[in-house]
Give the backbone structure.
Amino acid sequence: MAKGGGEGVIKALISRGSGGRGYSFSGCGAPVRIVSRSPAHYPRWRQDGVQLHQSPVRLARNPLLAGIKHNNRLEQVLIRAHLERADADEALVLDSEGVVVECASANLFWRRGRDVFTPTLHYAGVAGVMRRHVMSLLPALGYALAEVAVGPDALATADEVFITNALLPVVPVRAIDGRHYADRTLYQQLCPLC
């Protein structure tokens, strides 16, 4: 908690600074720091769950950047801009081939029975720290995990869907474009561990 600020999120961005023309980073001698604070809205999400809307903005496949969280997130800016006009809390994001990747700012999991699925991130997406943590917890909880490359129809048969990121850390999905998910079995098991 920042002094006098109440609960919120503090974000720190560090860049190598301004470089030369043509995207060159030569001459970057003075790092730039940007620190910002925003209120936390995630407690409401954890209590109520979130509604996802499939974004028409798709992520380009780029295996050189897949899995890495970096500051070149223009696609997420476009996804968020569209999401702000939709009646949803988060976006279900596909890649350019129609494969489910993630949300605008979270990783995605779904459960069918004792099987848990998460998108493979070989071509796009961010391999978040909470995603990795949840993946490490599943075997001890008696679940099998599969990283898959599937379209959004795979979520239609899910018993439960949830999202993760370092700030959430785990939030249930109550609906995706009108399809409702009421089961929170795995979510309730994960909450005390995350």
Notes: The chain has a mean pLDDT of 90. Residues 1-40 form one domain. The helical segments are 42-48, 74-83, 129-137, 185-190. The chain has two domains: 1-40, 42-193.
